[in-house]
Amino acid sequence: MLRAILRDMRAHPGRISMTLVAIVLGVAFVVATWVVSDSAAETVGNANSRTDLAARVSSPRDTELTAAERDRLAALPGVQRAIGVLIGHSSVVQADGKLGDTYWPGEGGTNWDSSARFTLASGRGPESGGEVALEQEAAADAGLTVGSSAKVLNADGEPTTMTVVGIFSYRKAGASEVSPAVAYDPATAAARLGSAFAWIDLYGTDQTQIASAASGALGSGFDVRTGAELAVQRQQQADEEAQLVRNFLLAFAGVALLAGMFVIANTFTMLVAQRTRHFALLRAVGARRRQVRRAVLAEAAVLGLVGATIGVALGIGLGWLTMEIIPTTGEAVVFAVSPMAPLVGYLVGVLVTVVAAYGSARRGAAVAPVAALGTDAALPKRSLVIRTVAGCVAMSAGVVAVVATSGPALTDAKRAVGMAGALTGWLAVILLAPLLASAVLIPLSRLVSRRGSAVSRLAVRNAIRDPRRTAATASALMIGLALVTAFATVGASLTSYITGAIETDVPADTLIVQSAQGFSSISPTLVEKVRAVSGVDSVASPTESFAEFTHQGREYHNTITALEADSLGRALTPVIEAGRADLTQGVLVSSADAKEQGISLGDTLTINGVTAPVVGLYGESEILHGIVVNKTLLPPDPKSYLGAVYVSGASRSALDAAFADRPDIVVLDRAGLLAEYTEPLDLALGIIYALLAAAVIIAVFGVVNTLALSVLERTREIGVFRAVGATRSLVRRSVRRESVVIATYGGLLGVGVGILLGGVMQHVIIGTPIFDLTIPKIVVAGALGGMIVVGVLAALWPARRAARTDILAAIATA
């Protein structure tokens, strides 16, 4: 039996080629994901970690580590060197005169030392006050090399011009350590960054002895870790980060494999149908059902093994290529292939193929020996009752779950139930796909029969001939396309939501003064500088802090936003849903917080000992949060956050001129502010689309495979068609239109499911009504147009093959 099956596979390689492609692509995605995550973990955890430390001393409390502690630790038995590390605010001005966003400025500066923290790529370390060394990525972003003049900012925002004498890469030891952008000589570092050390590194041979001695010398309150403990922490952090990346990518690999399963299952269904007489003859000469079933599963296992072998090799290659093209800052990239990567690849490849082929194997084994007497024997039509009932049950459960969680008050549990309901509904659509295919294509067939050409009638009838096959092919397309449309819907809805909120809060003529590094806090002292600019008539500087307040005898925690009373209605125009926007008479509360905490208009709140009435409730806002109070009501909180200053009346040129000497400050208009909010979302969606492309590509191969095998299945029919006068052109056009019908149906199904799924997702994320969504018209139009193109391209080879069918040989086919 096995020999017969393998011989049949060798005799018809074209039948399985596209299935092999689906297996290879799915396995390659999985293996590449595993290789990239393993390599990233090894690169971060080992290649770029320091192993020369004996111990590290840091202070988790407010106690400072000074030069006195460093000298005391240096004198301990076994300590060969003690190096204090300074970390503080420093950043490098980019080529455009402003700061970039590569580094967090609060930890951007450090002191140069001779330890393995620094690996020089070129030049030398700084030795005097006018010299700095720059980290490679920071230097590249600023367009600086050894010998260049760099503008370096400290905490006060004033630039200092210094000479770049070295370019370095940074090696970390602890899990919480970050890469600084700038390194100064020790004296300059102490002057610019302060004299208190962030930690002290100890060097020596006996880690345990040194760590114990350091703990005894400093007493409690100081954190002492050996170099081995730091290495373990660093590796654990690298493994956790790699696992997050792996889980994220594997989710998309799973989608690709799911699309591949439909392709494989569809292929085996048709392969088994084409070999009905072959199986019947085997049964007639004594083969048992179990033998036939095992033979088909063995064929699937062999196919999965071959596809997995190619996929593992391709995945390892893709992983290597990915690690090579990922931008680095001079680190030694480690290419790691753990045994799990190929093992998972083989497991996935074989298991997915066997599972997908199991139903076909059972149907092949059920062929009766008497079927060998027929001329065009085919598998009996399977009932859709069980599948339809299961689909209806799943759809009902999904709809109930979504409706039950469609209200505005969403808890984490309700969000989870809502998403589970949406996914259950998606599964129901897959189960009901044959029924939906009949529901869509039968009316289309009737319409085409009355008004369409002969080619169109033939194409639609061929597509509807086997609803299962059409549904399986369309479902493979639907999976990837539905996710693309869903995420596009979420992105469009979020963008529309953010845009609407900002356009409501910020008038068109308001300008924004904020940090050049996005949403970093800016100094409150800038507010007075903004007020001094010519033409300014209103300034809003919403300063946020977190505080307790008392309402009707109960204590709550909430965000407190301190704001200038005269800025409302001028620099900022939030929507007031109830009451009035008069901070001179009381406070404003967001409607969402008021509902959650039982606050009503006229209620009295006590915030940090100050009592004030609630005079207004405001709607959703991207600028104001929590309870909004008059800045004169509460004393300034030194730990508060000021993200931006909103200005009306002044011209853009006047504000630009006022802050021309401040590289850490930029001036934006409302369009620029909107771009800052939405560009990260666009980037994330672009990555998601690229990852989902694998599932769409597999589905396209599925269309090719379905049409090719369909042509083989209808060899005799096509021969008769040609014999009664059909031209080759007519045959090609009928196959192409059949492909377009199937692809368009899959596209419509995918877009429809995707929009509904996206509506639930945006409801779960931001709490807006499910149908208060924004449909991404460009994505929808592109998807449907792309499906038509896919239908045409996928049919090129099958149509050509059908048109070249030999008439006499086809008619003689039994």
TrEMBL record:
TM region(s), chain numbering: 248-273, 294-321, 333-358, 384-405, 425-449, 470-494, 687-712, 740-766, 778-797
Coarse class of the protein's main subcellular location: membrane
Location(s), subcellular: Cell membrane
An annotated GO cellular component: plasma membrane
The MacB-like periplasmic core domain, residue ranges: 18-193, 470-630
Any GO MF annotation of the entry: transmembrane transporter activity
Membrane-topology annotation of the record: Multi-pass membrane protein
Annotated keywords: Cell membrane, Membrane, Transmembrane, Transmembrane helix
Residue ranges constituting the ABC3 transporter permease C-terminal domain according to the UniProt record: 251-363, 691-806
Keyword Cell membrane: yes
Tree of life domain: Bacteria
Family, as annotated: Belongs to the ABC-4 integral membrane protein family.
Name the record gives this protein: ABC transporter
Organism listed in the record: Rhizocola hellebori
